[in-house]
Amino acid sequence: MIPSVLPTYNRAPLSFVKGEGSWLIEADGRRFLDLGAGIAVNALGHANPDLVAALTEQAGKLWHVSNLYNIDQQQSLADKLVDNSFADTVFFTNSGTESCELAVKMARKYFYEKGQPERTTIVAFEGSFHGRSSAGIAAAGSEKMTKGFGPLLPGFVHLPWGDHDALREAAAKPDVGAIIVEPVQGEGGIRPLPDQCMKGLRDLCDEHGILLIFDEVQCGVGRTGKLFAHEWAGITPDIMMVAKGIGGGFPLGAVLATENAASGMTAGTHGSTYGGNPLACAVGNKIMDIIADDAFLAEVNRKAALLRQKLEGIVAAHPETLESVRGSGLMLGMKCKATNLDLVKAGYGAAVLLVPAGDNVVRLLPPLNITDEDIAEAASRIDAAATALEQA
Ligand SMILES: Cc1ncc(COP(=O)(O)O)c(C=O)c1O
């Protein structure tokens, strides 16, 4: 008999009833150190008092009014995002997938309005992940995500990661309008795009008049130690997808764009019932107040260096099980020699939550405000998990 919850997930036998900072607590009182943070969502940990206050204060005033009216919290969050990024304008969504939908629509509408309606093709990369909607799975293109769901949304081509010749050839085609890429691939196995490649992509897009779309759903909002990951490379996109961390656990996403890239999106061309609602934006405003701050981001970088150093030590101590550490900021991956899923399972035994990713990688995406003590605890629990796996 089919379970009452559609069985699209292989769930671990854990049910959490409470969260405190970087910790999740089971009904029986067991405490797990959460290095997944809801897959890069709980940017400030669980039950953060500032976020709880922002949400509950707003909840007592106004939940929802629809986008037929001005929404003050939405306006102020849009202003903060514009002030702190390349963008001139923002549309709010409820998830990364919805941000992908709009990014694709915006790019196509741009060329339609510019009198180049043939430029509908979007270049994407193998190993990428952009969400589970029809546009999202077509953009990512992997068989795992698309098999059985055809006919797929047309107009995407997929290039191997790091194949510069293929990229140059694709970008020169007259039907290509945009390139979509994660500055750090998340689901694909924590693969950062080197700064040189980021710059090369920008140059290529400028040369051919192509829009550059960054998917910063997982790597954005302070995760890599800059507010947005592309800042490390010193270049900017035309369109950017955001979600996850911007809501700190409350569903919120956004598409940020330059005035030029957004020029086709006039009244009536897009909408969302819930996108930019007062509750989500009250939380998003508080997230921005805390994270878009040099001192906070400096701490993320310091903690990232500390965690990375400890992970390097664990890899050195377990050469049969682990191969290397990679990633950026607090978006780290341990490439495994053992099966990554087995290490994640061993983590449950050591009461530490890790997240599997592609390319046999185990992901660490802890809250950005994880404490030094919890980083030390994380290292000792991962070490214990690796030891348990070796002794199994
Ligand atoms: C890079 C990237 N893009 C898009 C998405 C889809 O986001 P959501 O699950 O909020 O729809 C994800 C989710 O993991 C992601 O990591």
From TrEMBL:
Gene3D superfamilies given in the database record: Aspartate Aminotransferase, domain 1, Type I PLP-dependent aspartate aminotransferase-like (Major domain)
GO MF term list: transaminase activity
Places the protein is found: Cytoplasm
The protein's annotated pathway: Amino-acid biosynthesis; L-arginine biosynthesis; N(2)-acetyl-L-ornithine from L-glutamate: step 4/4
SUPFAM superfamilies in the record: PLP-dependent transferases (SSF53383)
List of residues binding N(2)-acetyl-L-ornithine: R132, S272
UniProt keyword Amino-acid biosynthesis, yes or no: yes
Keywords, comma-separated and alphabetical: Amino-acid biosynthesis, Aminotransferase, Arginine biosynthesis, Cytoplasm, Pyridoxal phosphate, Transferase
Keyword Amino-acid biosynthesis: yes
Enzyme class: transferase
Organism: Marivivens donghaensis
Additional record remark: May also have succinyldiaminopimelate aminotransferase activity, thus carrying out the corresponding step in lysine biosynthesis.
Residues reported to bind pyridoxal 5'-phosphate: G96, T97, F129, D215, E216, V217, Q218, T273
UniProt EC number: 2.6.1.11
Family of the protein in this entry: Belongs to the class-III pyridoxal-phosphate-dependent aminotransferase family. ArgD subfamily.
Location, primary (coarse class): cytoplasm
Organism lineage: Bacteria, Pseudomonadati, Pseudomonadota, Alphaproteobacteria, Rhodobacterales
Top-level taxon in the UniProt lineage: Bacteria
Binding note for cofactor: Binds 1 pyridoxal phosphate per subunit.
Name the UniProt record assigns to this protein: Acetylornithine aminotransferase
HAMAP family cross-referenced by the UniProt entry: ArgD_aminotrans_3
Catalyses which reaction(s): N(2)-acetyl-L-ornithine + 2-oxoglutarate = N-acetyl-L-glutamate 5-semialdehyde + L-glutamate
Modified residues (N6-(pyridoxal phosphate)lysine): K244
Coiled coil: none
InterPro entries: AcOrn/SuccOrn_fam, Aminotrans_3, Aminotrans_3_PPA_site, Class-III_PLP-dep_AT, PyrdxlP-dep_Trfase, PyrdxlP-dep_Trfase_major, PyrdxlP-dep_Trfase_small
Required co-factors: pyridoxal 5'-phosphate
Oligomer and partners: Homodimer.
